[in-house]
């Protein structure tokens, strides 16, 4: 899921052994969410609704994810804007390679975003390069310490377990035109197993996080995106808030399937 999103920063880089241990705790999933309007900050938006489906497949050597999101926004003049996005990734479990595809369509079904490529860590400091296939020939550097989405999730889960309060680390997930973003993660709480309507989650610890996303080329103190959620140790997210600036959407987990792993 969009790991979207510093402040007094605490630099944090996970050790490879810890990341590997956490990778073993993550599982495949198929999760469906209903999106409802939680807050508006301007008079331009009077209503919003939507849906999101997030699937993650354990490919043994890597994680395959797909996210499909639909948003329907009602404007002050009564008109409706619909946006549909499809986001797909493959991330190697060693955290070195990410392939991604992002497509977004507007109210008329017109393709407004069509990005695809491969990001690779080539330096010992986890620097690297993004090579785009769409638009063809576009190249972008990865700054040292950049994490890809699954490694980013592992990092925040490890931070919750270790009692950390904040984590700051660059993230590249293929969803921003500016390349890698700075992220600032505030860990709001860590919980032991708690009752849940989903049996697969009731036996797991979880971590509440607030994640802010910033363009690296700017010095803005206001994030361009912010999200809150509760992450379970298997990588499932609940209690989601997606802050788009003018409005905030709440994501409620409706359906969850955890497939059996075929990896040994």
Structural class of the helices, strands and pairings? mainly beta
Secondary-structure element order, as H and E? HEEEEEEEEHEEHEEEE
Measured by DSSP, the beta-strand proportion falls in over 45%
Helix proportion of residues, in percent?
Answer: 10-25%
Number of helices: 3
Number of domains: 1
* E-strand count: 14
Q: Specify the overall morphology.
A: globular
Mean pLDDT: 88
End-to-end separation in angstroms reads 26 Å
Question: Which segments are poorly predicted (pLDDT under 50) over 5 or more consecutive residues?
Answer: 1-24
Major sheet: arrangement of strands: 8-7-6-5-4-3-2-1-14-13-12-11-10-9
For the sheet with most strands, the description reads: 14 strands, antiparallel
Report the C-alpha radius of gyration, rounded.
18 Å
Describe, in plain words, how this protein is organized in 3D.
The structure is a single chain. With 264 residues, this protein is mainly beta. The protein has one domain (16-256). It is built from 3 helices and 14 strands. Strands 8-7-6-5-4-3-2-1-14-13-12-11-10-9 form a 14-stranded antiparallel sheet, covered by helices on one side. It is globular, with a radius of gyration of 18 Å.
């Amino acid at each position: 899921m969009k790991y979207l999103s510093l402040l007094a920063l605490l630099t944090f880089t996970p050790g490879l052994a810890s990341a590997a241990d956490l990778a073993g705790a993550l599982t495949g999933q198929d999760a469906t969410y209903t999106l409802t309007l939680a807050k508006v900050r301007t008079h331009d938006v009077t209503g919003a609704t939507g849906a999101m489906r997030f699937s993650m497949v354990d490919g043994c050597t890597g994680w395959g994810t797909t996210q499909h999101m639909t948003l329907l926004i009602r404007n002050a003049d009564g008109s409706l804007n619909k946006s549909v996005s499809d986001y797909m990734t493959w991330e190697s479990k060693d955290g070195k390679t990410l392939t991604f595809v992002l497509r977004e369509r507007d109210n008329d079904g017109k393709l407004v975003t069509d990005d695809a490529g491969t990001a690779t860590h080539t330096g010992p400091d986890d620097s690297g390069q993004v090579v785009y296939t769409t638009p063809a020939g576009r190249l972008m550097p990865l700054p040292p310490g950049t994490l890809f989405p699954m490694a980013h999730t592992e990092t925040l889960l490890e931070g919750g377990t270790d009692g950390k309060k904040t984590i700051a680390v660059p993230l590249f997930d293929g969803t921003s035109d500016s390349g890698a973003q700075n992220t600032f993660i505030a860990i709001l709480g860590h919980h032991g197993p708690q009752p849940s309507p989903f049996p697969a989650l009731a036996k797991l610890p979880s971590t509440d996080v607030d994640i802010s996303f910033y363009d690296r080329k700017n010095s803005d103190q206001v994030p361009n995106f912010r999200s809150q959620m509760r992450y379970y140790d298997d990588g499932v997210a609940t209690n989601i808030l997606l802050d788009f600036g003018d409005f905030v959407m709440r994501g409620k987990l409706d359906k969850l399937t955890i497939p059996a792993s075929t990896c040994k």
